[in-house]
What does this fold into?
Amino acid sequence: MRVRLTLLVALLSLTAACGGAGSEISAAVADAPAKRVALWGAEGGFVTATMNVLRPPRVVVYSDGVVIADASKQLKLTENEVSKIVASMRTYLTGQPPTAQPRPDAPTVSDVPTTVLGVRGQDGKMLEVRVPALDQVASFYPKQLPDAKELMDGLAVRAAASGTDYAGTRVRLVAEGAASAEGKPAPWPAGVEEPSGSVDPVWQKDLDGVAVAAITKAVPAGREYGTSLFKTSSGALFMLSWRYLLPDE
It folds into this structure.
């Protein structure tokens, strides 16, 4: 009887030890940060310096199923949906050059953004393809590229229609000099770092902690003339704009 009891205790101890290790491994996997697996964004074009700094990806799909559109809306996809999107984007983008070129007979288009399409490959690396003026000359590119954009655009439409508001824990703040701006400036938000040195053309700062609450309370989301004019302690005037940073920014 004593031998059987001893063996039972040892077996229970071994089971508990194995279960604990498994729990730790599962927790480590669960706690691993989600990675981008698909992307649609834009670069360049004739835009203001503030917009160029603040412009978020149009759509980012993460490995945990979260989709964030314009850093303002989010929705959650199933594992099967994510797998289908990644598989489709790999089909569309594999074999494309890093920067695509339209057919030689395409019309010349200038001062428009370059579309960026991306997907995480089987090797774990992001494959990105830049497509100049895709919106304007889509028919002059291989069909896979506008198809990839259409797939991602569908997620943006879905997020806008049925998604929830996205609010990150960190923000990107941009200050643009406004020495000649009209209106009554507000005092610089307490607890937020002020620009130092020359600002050419804009000053930016990524914020977290209490500074996030100060900015989101003081400055309306997006740039709104008259309500985003602030004066530093030295008397300099700035227009402030911000957006939430994405989880992996």
